[in-house]
Amino acid sequence: MSDAVIWSLVVSALLVVVVRRRSVAIVVVAAQSLILGAQAIADASGESTALLVAGAVLLAKGVVLPVLLIAVVTRTREASRIATERHPLARLTLALAVALGLAALVPRFGLTSAGAEHAAVGLVALGIATAIVRRPAIFQALGFLLAENGLYLAALAAPGGLPAFIELGLVFDLVVVISVAGAFSAKIHEELGTSDTSLLGGLRD
Amino acid sequence: MTEALVIVVPGLPILSGLLIQLAGTPRGADRINIAGAVATAAAALTLTAVALAHSATPEHGSWYVLDGATGAFVAVVAVVGLLSALVSPAYLAGAGRSFFRAARARSWYYLGFHLFWAALLALPLVDNLAVAWLLVEATTGASALLVAYSGRRAALEAGWKYLVLTTFGVTVALVGILILYVGLAPHGGLLSTLDWQNIAHGAGSLPPESALLAFLLIVGGLATKIGWAPVHNWLPDAHSEAPPPVSALLSAALLPTVVLIAWRVLETLGPALRDGVASGTFLAFGLVSLAIAVPFLWRPLAWKRLLAYSSLEHMGVLALGIGFATPLATAGVVLHVAGHALAKALGFYAAAPLLRHQPEAAERPARGLAGASPGTAAAVGVSLGSLSGLPPSPLFFSELLVLLGGIDAGEIVVTAIAATLLACGFLGLAHALIEGVVSDDRQRPWRRGRQVLAIERLTVVIGVGLIGLSATAYLLPGSTFVDRLMGGVG
């Protein structure tokens, strides 16, 4: 896996942390998934099962899920900017600190390249950071996708890859979770008039 | 024959959930739900009998393992699932607005419920860590919308929090599984690389840092789903906002079943770690969970929220028993899982008539139940009395066994702290019991309608079950069943 691919994955994850518009973030994550899918297809050349799995993953993460999320965004227009969002620079700083910290802490664990290992851990960390620092519900769903792309990158860089059953299981799981998250996002918007999840803070002891 | 039964057990609830979509009327949906639940429970309890018969010599199939633990956990999930399915029609009849469109709300509820139950029944059976992970995730997908079923703002918050926190938690566990997989198969592996027995056999050859990292990430990630403190934030909200039959399934079946997966990880991967690290992790989760839960048991909480914090306490007891890892503690854990399931399920079922007649109990403690509805008061009394560990509750014996197991393991300080916290928890729940049942608040007597009658019958059935479990406390320690409980993974 080339350094250019790895860097493009990391930069796209950072973009999701800073961009304002939900639709732009969805396109960025779709592009990231397509880059990973293309890499998986390139790695699988000549092996029919691996090719089939890579194609299914690419279709689900690069096309189906982004289309689903765009449909949710279209149904849940925000009347104004979400006021509770932190400044993009603050979000970026926090996300970078989490990602770099975790990437530095996790020791080598046997993937084919150190760069892929750091990037995989970084993407998982950025997915979690996105869910923490972004307020609109859709960004938390995008956090799942970023984290899952980190795991997929690790799977591609694992010696011999991951068994097809696990890869397909992961995609199925992702489709279910993102669909449920989409349903929640729409319902939260219907109830609150915005998808700002920071307004859901009534349950405390 | 066994292989067919293993497929039928999770298959039947899936089929029931799909068939209910074809029902033309609410009554038809209820009937299919009950018929499917009875058939599922019958098949699951038959499988339990097969698993218990194999407890001395565990059986492995193409994708499943039948050992004592499988039998015990499938039985618990089957019984709680059946009871929840039976009380669901009465809950749905009185439910108002919903997350879903009114015309489809009931069938969506049943679909989610039966898929959730199917995943829970399959979890103790699977012989592979990766497949177990997928099933744990499937439980989230199936149950998140059920948590938010009422569609109220608080329910949306609880469901969303549950979805986000547990999904990211189990994603962390998946990172650990990936590290474990790469360590076990440095030149490429198969799905079977992550079979429990292969993990146990290969763990010794793992690089020490990889083994430690994988263990901490897997157990730490699963802890978010179990609701062990300090990663328990979703638990009180989801348990208190979900419909009562779903709360029962979440607390009495989901949490302990995921504990089983963490326990299997300890049994297979733990020996590869430095002495005391694996058990110490469980003991730490246990003590922190107790320490966080007990102060809440002293506060005047709404009924379902009190039960939720009691779940946190009891999952802490399970973590301690597993961490002590002595035969006495193991016997205590098995008894605790079963006793907690019955007592907690009864508590949540009692919430249905309670919230219907005393809606303010959703926000503050229930009061004066003995005067208002002796039947509901009996249910609350049996549930809280058992959960507090009042003798002759099976939880009294199980907690005693866990603490004796701790002394047997030489963990005197941990045992002393745990005993103190459990005593404080007992006092907190006993206070809630007295305030809720026999406080002198004048309440107008409730009509003895369908829900109250149902809870009275359930109290008798579950009360007998609890007494029966207490009797087994004398049989479990030293039995082959306990000695070979995890025989299928070693």
Features:
heterodimer; A: 205 residues; mainly alpha; globular; B: 490 residues
Put the structure in a nutshell.
The complex is a heterodimer of chains A (205) and B (490). With 205 residues, chain A is mostly helical.
Describe the structure.
The complex is a heterodimer of chains A (205) and B (490). Chain A is an all-alpha fold. Helix content of chain A is 75%, strand content 0%. Chain A has helices at 3-18, 22-43, 48-75, 88-105, 114-133, 137-157, 164-192. In chain A, helix 4 packs across helix 5 (114-133). The termini of chain A are far apart. By secondary structure, chain B is mainly alpha-helical. Chain B has a two-stranded antiparallel sheet. In chain B, a hairpin with a 4-residue loop joins strand 1 and strand 2. In chain B, helix 3 (68-94) runs parallel beside helix 13 (327-357), helix 9 packs across helix 12 (303-324) and helix 10 (244-269) runs parallel beside helix 12 (303-324). Chain B is globular, with a radius of gyration of 21 Å. At the A-B interface, helix 5, helix 6 and helix 7 of A face helix 5, helix 6, helix 8 and helix 9 of B.
Mean pLDDT of chain A: 92
Biggest sheet features of chain A: none
Radius of gyration of chain B: 21 Å
**Beta-strand segment tally of chain B:** 2
List segments of chain A where confidence is low: pLDDT < 50 over at least 5 consecutive residues: none
Structural class, judged by helices and strands of chain A?
Answer: mainly alpha
Q: In terms of quaternary structure, what is this? A: heterodimer
Helix-residue proportion of chain B: over 70%
